[in-house]
Amino acid sequence: MNRDSGRTHRGGRSSFRGCYSNRSHSSVMSNENDFFPIGSNNFDHHLQVGDSGEKSCYTRDDGMSQSQRRRFPNNSPSGSRCSKHENATVYEYRPKTSWPAGTGFGGQNDTPEILGTPDAVVLKDDCLSPSRYPGSTGSNLGVERDQIELSSVEETESCAALLHYDLSNKVNISDSVDKPGTPKPSHERSPPNSSGIDDLSQAKCQAVVEPFDICLPKIATPVMLKPSLLVKNREKRNELKRSAEGQIGNVLRPGMVLLKKYLSITDQVKIVRACRALGLGSGGFYQPGYRDGAKLHLKMMCLGKNWDPETGNYGDLRPIDSVVPPGIPREFYQLVEKAIKDSHSLIQQKTKASHAEDILPWMSPNICIVNFYSASGRLGLHQDKDESPGSLRKGLPVVSFSIGDAAEFLYGDEREVDKVEKVELESGDVLVFGGRSRHIFHGVTAIKQKTAPGSLLEETNLRPGRLNLTFREY
Ligand SMILES: O=C(O)CCC(=O)C(=O)O
Ligand SMILES: [Fe+2]
Q: Could you tell me which residues belong to the region Disordered (predicted)?
């Protein structure tokens, strides 16, 4: 991902066709029966904290410096609670004996497994592998860390902060980024481009790593803001109708496919829960910034490998805090695989191409970049071109999942706002761009407020905003 538009973060590019048969649009991650679980919590989605609400009520009180904490991780404190969160959720850290190894698309072992229920997410396997923590025994919490179970007993906000403070440190990046010898950015900051999109703003420190919960605390509010049964049923009906009619999507240009409302609400819920849990842990969400203080207008987390917006490099460690990114959950692979397969069918159907793979190559992701855009979030026009020369040469696609509020997405051959096309990416949409479209310029100009599906919000308490996951193969 070379967000080559100066510092406009990330990018991809262009051309196409494709068919499609027998598409099953059902949930990969779970049973449709839990589409509308009984007994979900009340919440007030839009009444909550905005960007400024990202700070945790937890403070470290162990008197340790950052470097001490790194050297003596077992002394990591649990964090102290603010009185507001006395009755918080409890996270259980469950020891497990072996660390799986292995890799690959649809592969067996090297990814955490998300076992979601409405109230629990279990991150299994090597989300927190000791191998991902050089010099560590895998016991940063005084327990073996190869399996962590997050059991949501009651409220979820507090435990999130607790987990964050146990597993990672709040880091003022200015300490680490500005040291002599830190790699220089590979590109210069661009002025606001002709699109008027300036996805950089000035700030004091280069990046901010502090707890960011993509979900809001559940507050026992009156029932009034619960999405009505009517709305929920409408959403479900529409989903079934689309599926029955085979309205899966469009080929936007050669190698670029948009699968509309492709992810079921059930899968979206699971993805949100998984991203929330990972985002609060070590290597979780942070606000990327640059050495000159400019910041991206989003929160980011990398899975599989780290992508450094400052240098455009991929690596095994996140330079700002030397943390190894969590693995990509296994279920995500299955969804990506299915999306590529269905894109091939669509390409074949629409273009009568005999070999859809020539137009849109297969891809086995080893990187997932997760962005969270708040209502004012955006991303300037850019190309994704920091992946390996081989990956780019072959046009291995970027697969992008949109969840939450809809986004106005621009794409085109040039980084000129008046020369690009616009499409709305709604919750559940999957956009795939590879082959001749691998190097398109693309970006997000706006997040459309209050457009997220009610049932998704009810299930997850996702903040106002948009979650986006882009999968790539390095
Ligand atoms: O949010 C999106 O839809 C696009 C994200 C993107 O382009 C990127 O992460 O490189
Ligand atoms: Fe991109």
A: 1-24, 53-86, 174-200
pLDDT in tens, 401-424: 999 999 999 999 999 999 999 999
The three-class DSSP label of residue 389 is helix
* E-strand stretches of 338-436: 367-373, 379-382, 398-404, 406-412, 421-425, 430-433
* pTM to 2 decimal places: 0.62
Strand pairing report for 208-209 and 171-172: antiparallel
User: Cα angle vertex 70, ends 80, 79, to 5°?
Assistant: 5
pLDDT of residue 218: 81
Other beta carbons within 10 Å of 446: 18
Residues 6+ apart with CB under 8 A from 122: 113, 114, 115, 116, 147, 148, 149, 150
Q: What ipTM does this complex have?
A: 0.99
User: Is 164 part of any known ligand binding site?
Assistant: no
Q: What is the three-class DSSP state of 67? A: helix
Query: Mean pLDDT throughout 328-344?
Result: 97
442 marked ligand binding residue: yes
Pocket test for ligand 1, best of 400, 426, 472 (most atoms within 8 A of CB): 400
Beta strands in 129-259 (DSSP E): 148-151, 171-172, 200-202, 208-209, 249-253, 256-259
pLDDT in tens, 376-402: 999 999 999 999 999 999 999 999 999
> Considering every ligand atom, which ligand is closest to the CA of 439?
2
The first and second tokens of residue 334, run together, are 């299955």
Question: Which residues 6+ apart lie within 8 Å of 208 measured at CB?
Answer: 172, 173, 286, 287, 289, 295
**Of 249, 238, 240, which Cα lies nearest the Cα of 19?**
249
Q: Say if residue 213 carries a ligand binding annotation.
A: no
Q: Compute the distance between CA of residue 359 and CA of residue 395 in angstroms, rounded to an integer.
A: 9
User: Among 21, 429, 98, 433, which Cα is nearest to 264's?
Assistant: 429
Q: What is the pLDDT of residue 221?
A: 56
From the CB of 8, is ligand 1 less than 6 Å away? no
